[in-house]
Design a protein that fits this description.
The chain is an alpha/beta fold. It has 10 helices and 11 strands. 28% of the residues lie in helices and 18% in strands.
């Protein structure tokens, strides 16, 4: 996306089901999807929260977000240690299956702050490949989950921090990376259109590296109305695009802000751009005129929160 390079004169011992065959455990079809009655809605267990967790609860508690229905959304595999750990520690996730390799099992269980659910099973490399594909980097851990439930924008705005609004950003890896930055910089939520935006998926979850369980992903029908709603909540909306001044978090004087980012190729659409309170770009004194949207989001978020 163009982020306004200004002219030079301006700006995880498990209780796994050892009796299951590696191919198709009871209650599961050959596709890896659970049959009816096999879903496991897990909670946080009885282990006490680590010291200091209460003070972070308001911001780090997993939330109900994403979308659980519509446009064919259904169970999908999340692979990798960090993303799988975050899933199992989110009490709002519906988990169908957990695959663990012999090599990864002990260390992964030690990482978890909750008991390993009973749906966990030992899996060989061939099973991981059959269910996830040969190119998936799984680190010996994979979880079959339902997409997260939807969060209303008004509920998401009860969380502190800046807001990210994505105008037709369609690459799931970019959205995942943006979610990761949003978690790192304490964003309240990431908002995107119901259409022209990726479904919650394995690729998105992998790129988010656990942030999908932390930062609410809000979907709206009309982005212009969403921006109006943000303004009604006294949130200053900044379109990150060429043609404006330099983004300066210090100039906000502590006012809450939303960063609006355009698509990977075309940037902000006209109506989205016109609806923002301000258009601003990143200070880039080098020779490149644009950045990947996920990189721009990370730098923009840093600029918004650095004054703290």
């Amino acid at each position: 996306m163009r982020t306004s390079r200004p002219p030079k004169s301006r700006h995880s011992s498990p209780n796994h089901s050892s009796g299951h065959s590696p191919g198709h455990p009871p209650g599961h079809s050959s596709s890896g999807r659970p049959q009816d009655g096999q879903r496991h809605r897990h909670g946080g267990g009885d282990r006490p929260a680590p010291e200091g967790a209460a003070s972070r609860e308001a911001h780090r508690s997993p939330r109900r977000h994403g979308r659980s229905s519509g446009r064919g959304a259904g169970p999908y595999w999340i692979a990798g240690i960090h993303a799988s750990q975050a899933v199992l520690e989110n009490p709002h996730r519906t988990v169908h299956r957990i695959l663990l390799s012999a090599e990864a099992q002990e260390d992964f269980v030690k990482r978890l702050s909750v008991p390993l659910p009973a749906v966990a099973e030992r899996a060989e490399r061939a099973q991981f490949t059959a269910l996830l594909g040969a190119d998936t980097v799984h680190q010996g851990v994979a979880v079959l989950v339902e997409p997260l439930e939807a969060t209303d924008l008004e509920d998401a705005l009860e969380r502190p921090g800046p807001v990210l609004v994505l105008d037709q950003v369609t690459d799931p890896r970019n959205v995942g990376a943006i979610l990761r930055s949003a978690a790192a910089f304490g964003a309240a939520c990431v908002v995107m259109q119901d259409r022209h935006a990726p479904e919650e998926s394995a690729a998105l979850a992998k790129a988010a590296s656990g942030a999908l369980e932390i930062v609410p992903m809000v979907r709206v029908v009309n982005l212009a109305r969403c921006i109006d709603t943000l303004k009604q909540h006294d949130i200053w909306t900044i379109g990150l695009d060429a043609g404006g001044g330099r983004l300066d978090g210090g100039s906000l004087g502590g006012r809450r802000a939303a960063l609006v980012l355009g698509s990977e190729g075309d940037g902000l659409r006209r109506l989205t751009r016109e609806g923002c309170d301000e258009i601003a770009g990143l200070f880039m004194p080098g020779t490149m005129e644009s950045l990947n949207v996920s990189v721009a989001a990370a730098i923009g978020l840093y600029e918004l929160v650095r004054a703290g």
